[in-house]
Amino acid sequence: MRLALYSLATVLMLPWAVLHLWLRSRRQPEYLQQVAERFARYPAVTDSRPLIWIHAVSVGETRAAETLIAALRQRYPQHRILLTHMTPTGRATTSNTLAECERRYLPYDTPWAARRFLRHYRPQLGLIMETELWPNLIHACKEDGTPLLLVNARLSERSARGYARFGALTRAALQSLTQVSAQTPADAQRLQALGAQNISVSGNLKFDLQAPPAHSELAAYWRSGMGGCPVVLCASTREGEEDLLLAAWQKARPNALLVIVPRHPQRFDEIAALVEKHGLACLRRSANKPTADAPVWLGDSMGEMAAYYAFADVALIGGSLLDYGSQNLIEACATGTPVLLGPSTFNFAEAASNALACGAAIAITDADDFVVKATGLLKDEARRAAMSAAGREFTHAHRGATARTMQLIEAVLKVNTLSA
């Protein structure tokens, strides 16, 4: 009955979903591309090889899936890989690892779309990255006999409270999963409290990511025109944060280049205008090499975050200044960039706590505190070196999630093959 009510609500929301696509397309036209896929209308399948399906809703999940995809290709070279998304930015995320995957949108979670998706692709195995619980899709997988794993699973206390409001529906969805592989014991505990079974803790796949060598070369090229000018990066900033950061930066006027890389590409023009509104000259990555003469450089590119981190002397992790829960700090630590973290870190609670404890990161309270601590670090080369070493050691110590997740996948595929 609860699944039927959920399905009815999902169907009734479809007109709003289409309107949402149109509204989003006004800032990001890609939202009106491949709309048919969102209703499970896909091109004909011409490849008869068995298929492994991975769902990665957006950029962060797609990046985390890279190490898993590489391992799957090595272990199961006879399989093709389908990668589904919900956002254009996730679908546009590129790398050599992702290049050979088929890329599609996952359909809206109506019963018929879920069944049509499974009938069309016939996956031998499904992997959902992090925490994307679609009750009809999960139910369809169970009815169809398709093993479905929730991997690299994370669940903040805030998200757990939200799912608990729909306790019976959430419990049924979680109990229909074949396996759950959580990032941390705390994530596992919260998922278990909501009804998940067959849970193990495998760690965070993002610790296993390696920056492409080309990004180090790009960072060195950017550095070549700086004349020794220090660089402070605000990485993956979210709406409302840039205004606070620019106001604090303009007030203090540090002798350093401020690099701002917004989390969402549709906001690039908005942030360029905001920089000028604060009376600061702004160069853009798409048009200019950074120089010591311009106070702000706007990182209006995708897929180059490791290069921005390697370029920077200090980095603030966006989404932590205001109540967004923080973006990924692991990539900065892996690059050896000293990290500044605002008060909101619930999306990476354990990683943030560990990075602060080991000295790879420093906590800040607000935008003014960011400027004070960033400029303080620029003057303290010894502390920056110590934070850099701590960050690299921190990430190295937490690697291995890919191998542990692959053990689960291999076991499930083996059982599924034997029972087929």
Output the keywords.
Rossmann fold, 2 domains, seven-stranded parallel β-sheet, 47% helix
Walk me through this protein's architecture.
This protein is α/β, with parallel strands linked by helices and 420 residues long. It has 2 domains: 34-203 and 400-419, Rossmann fold (3-Layer(aba) Sandwich), CATH 3.40.50.11720; 213-397, Rossmann fold, CATH 3.40.50. The chain is 47% helix and 15% strand. The chain is built from 18 helices and 14 strands. The chain has helices at 2-12, 14-25, 59-75, 88-92, 111-121, 135-144, 157-164, 167-175, 185-193, 213-223, 241-252, 268-277, 305-311, 330-335, 349-358, 367-378, 381-397, 401-419, and strands at 51-55, 80-85, 102-105, 125-129, 148-153, 179-182, 199-201, 231-237, 257-262, 282-284, 296-298, 314-317, 339-341, 361-363. It has a 7-stranded parallel beta sheet with strand order 3-2-1-4-5-6-7, sandwiched between helices. A 7-stranded parallel beta sheet has the order 10-11-9-8-12-13-14, with helices on both faces. Helix 6 (135-144) links the parallel strand 4 and strand 5 (148-153). Helix 5 crosses helix 6 (135-144). The longest helix has 19 residues, at 401-419. 43% of the residues are buried. The mean pLDDT is 94.
Rounded radius of gyration (Å): 22 Å
Main pleated sheet: 7 strands, parallel
Counting DSSP E segments of at least 2 residues, the number of strands comes to 14
Number of helices: 18
Low-confidence stretches: none
Which percent range fits the helix content?
A: 40-55%
Number of domains: 2
Principal-axes geometry comes out as globular
CATH superfamily descriptor of the largest domain? 3-Deoxy-D-manno-octulosonic-acid transferase, N-terminal domain
Can you tell me the CATH architecture of the largest domain?
Answer: 3-Layer(aba) Sandwich
Strand order of the largest sheet: 3-2-1-4-5-6-7
Report the sheet-strand fraction: 5-15%
Distance between the termini: 31 Å
Overall average pLDDT: 94
Q: Which class of the largest domain in CATH terms?
A: Alpha Beta
Derived structural class: alpha/beta
